[in-house]
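Page 47, continued from p. 46.
Same chain as before, 176 aa.
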Amino acid sequence: MSAVKQAMPISLLTRWIKSPIGLIEIGINTKDEKGDASLWYVELIAKEQIKNLHNDDKHPLLDLAQTQLDCYFKGQSYNFDLLLEFQSSYGTKFQKQVWHALTKIPLGETWSYGQLAAFINNPKAVRAVGAANGKNPLAIVVPCHRVIGANGTLTGYAGGLDNKQKLLDFEKSLVR
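Result:
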């Protein structure tokens, strides 16, 4: 079960990569409902979750995800849209709408949950937007870390608030 509590597919392949903010796990479903591979999750791994890590799994989608994330963390040109072409079908229609909107938050910027709700033309759905944000299975790729409280404070992040701050600081340094 991933951090967003989605059931893992039977045909799951994983890879762990090191990043400046810690270990990241990438999971792909090699047999989705269309018979294609799909990006199932990308999440930060807490030290206490690390058990018998291995990087034996091979797949072009794992390679693509690793390459794009490596470029992101090196401050080099990356294109997460390439990964989003393989996004799994996980999530409700509303969640997918919120996750798509998250990809519109510019690098180095933050939006409040209210701004995100207004962006999807549903300004009264602030709490629902927050809940959908918390279920995002593709950390970093779908930048849920760019959403903060209305008063400017950091709020929940599955990867930990310290990592959320590190990601925001890192991204701000890239746009300077």
